[in-house]
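Let us practice reading a record.
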Amino acid sequence: MKFKKTASALMASLLLAGAVSLPALAADGDPMVIAPAPGEETHGYQMEVNGAQTDVSVPILVPLRTVAEALDFTVAWNGDGTVSIDSGSMHTLITIGQDSYQAITSLEGAVGATGPLSLGAAPVVVGGATYVPLELFDILLGNGAVTLEDGRITVDTGAGSGAVQIPSPWVELDTMEQAAEKAGFGLTLPAEAEKYAERVYQVMSAENGAILEVLCRSGDDRMIIRKAPGSGDISGDYTAYAQERTQTVGSLSVVMKGEEGLVSLATWTDGGYAYSISVDAARSAAEMAGLVRGVR
């Protein structure tokens, strides 16, 4: 069984509203449930497979700027892959891609810091937004200061408590035309998209423009297609695939990733835009190339 780590429309909000069944992400149709972890594990979700509890806890990631600024922290991106977060009382410096966190006092004349800590997930950037483990704010504000219930983060700083509701970064639209107007560019889908029972059109604001996503699904089978200005991998799929190769599809250089000779993810750049196709049911390289040819 493999758990596909995808920061897509389904995962970008990172399960902030209780138990969620994810059969589409389990191999061979096995049901997978992620529910709040027991006891003191208030910042992660426990993974359950086929009704059996596992010892795997999935950290909750939240949008850094949204939460930090709501809690009166200042946030500064330093241009070198690091981000500074400071409340005036405590501060930290995080590095994108590194699961290492430390809280240091900001009070003049005071000395104090935690040791470097692993929170189970590194900071990541999705669509121009930085996501960090929710537990980081517990470290900065004091153990037990942050709790999560029914999708609402509650913070107790000792001087009172308040709640911060985490909004979804995606805006859902009814039609492709509306999504294209919102994003500022259009997206042509491959013919296979018509075979899916449902298509969900979504747009997320990003640092250099917007990401337009179409989620095609029939039951547990999904295909996710994205387009955004720029280059690079915009898929939000952080699965460590065993195989990766670059294949020429027409005039395009397409990176294909997957396992056992099949492809689950394709990414490429064309005409100033980055594209991606992610599928739950892995395809042959030829089949994925056919999908790529149909996307513009």
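A brief commentary: The chain has two domains: 61-165, 170-293.
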